[in-house]
Amino acid sequence: MDDYKPIREDYLHEIAAASSLDLLYAVKVRYMGKKGLISEMNKNLAKLPPEEKPIAGAEIGKLRNEFTELYEGKEKKLKERELSEKLLSERLDVTLPGLALPIGSAHILSRTASEIADFFASMGYSVASGPEVELDYYNFEALNMPYGHPARDMQDTFYVSDSEVMRTHTSPVQIRTMLIHKPPIRIIAPGKVYRSDYDVTHSPMFHQVEGLYIDENISMGDLKGTLERFVKALFGSDVPVRFRASYFPFTEPSMEVDMGCSICGTKGCRVCKNTGWLEIGGCGMVAPEVFEAVKIDYDQYSGFAFGMGVERIAMLKYGIDDIRLFFENHVKFLNQF
Ligand code: FA5
After folding, report:
1. Count of CB atoms within 10 A of residue 137's CB?
2. Which residue out of 206, 315, 327 has the highest number of ligand 1 atoms within 8 Å of its CB and is therefore the one to mutate?
């Protein structure tokens, strides 16, 4: 038994001296590991006389239990110490001001499109949609612009194939709607359209809102009244609106709607090309050729259609003098609205 005394003392000493979990673990391995001192002592039991073996075996067992207990006690203490050191070093000052997370908002064009849609919803219009890659048939032919018609040149077109285009306007949604629904029809169709155009008031991708109202006895008076009311609702009752005779193959008669330029207060600027007016859309009474294409009896029904540029309306509403600003996505610009 006396042989074990120095081992025990060494162990006590080494456990007391272990200043970290790593060092403590190394002590454990040295004494209680597979090739440690306790294993060695167990092997040496074989060399003892038979009567001493059980006594020495029991002593070694006691020693192992004591070593384990001491190890566990020290391990607990070291773990607690490491935890409190960590807590101290990683201390957070919860009174410091937090990082400001920027909050997003709807793009100015989405907001303008919603305002337009809200107005027409209040007038009983529902929302229709169509594809942006459109068949030539719906984009041109059914709108009374057969292949080779000069009016196709009014809209510089991106062709996808011989029979498909990036839609140049939202008017094909008129055709798709009239082919499916019978009058009365009252829809708007907001969406993206594409043309090979690029300057301060023209963008290659822009947004239009189409409108279509078909019923019995619909007149030019209904059309003018609706659009005038729309402009006054969005811009206030003082804003001047004018209708100019124009030409679209799918309406007869046709007009263009102009608003007083709010950028220069109708004095003339680069946006309104010094005219004091800016065109916001085209409109007219649905042409007989279109009614024929969608098989609606134009002796019974009549109707009007319009198509407005959302960017133009947003430019006028918010005093923006270059259409390209909408798409450059400078946060400083967008945050102003
Ligand atoms: C049309 O696109 C017709 N489909 C409108 C229409 C519908 C007429 C129904 C009759 C009946 P227009 O090409 O004029 O017409 O375009 C309509 C509006 O879109 C213009 O008044 C303008 O506000 C806007 N617009 C046209 N080209 C661009 C462009 N490149 N960038 C931004 N806005 C544009």
Report:
1. 14
2. 206
Spans of all domains in the chain: 4-87, 108-335
Q: Which regions of the chain does DSSP assign to beta strands (E)?
A: 126-127, 133-135, 164-166, 185-194, 205-215, 241-248, 251-260, 277-286, 302-309
Residue 168 to residue 154: CA distance in whole angstroms? 10
Residues with CB under 6 A from ligand 1: 155, 169, 171, 195, 197, 202-203, 206, 208, 210, 248, 251, 254, 279-284, 305-309, 311-312, 323
Would you state the CATH architecture of domain 108-335?
2-Layer Sandwich (3.30)
CA distances from 232 to 167, 313, 324 (A): 29, 12, 26
Q: What is the DSSP string of 111-148?
A: HHHHHHHHHHHHTT-EE----SEEEHHHHTGGGT--TT
Q: For residue range 290-313, what is the model confidence (pLDDT) as tens digits?
A: 999 999 999 999 999 999 999 999
Distance from Cα 13 to the centre of ligand 1, integer Å: 92
Q: What is the mean pLDDT of residues 31-49?
A: 90
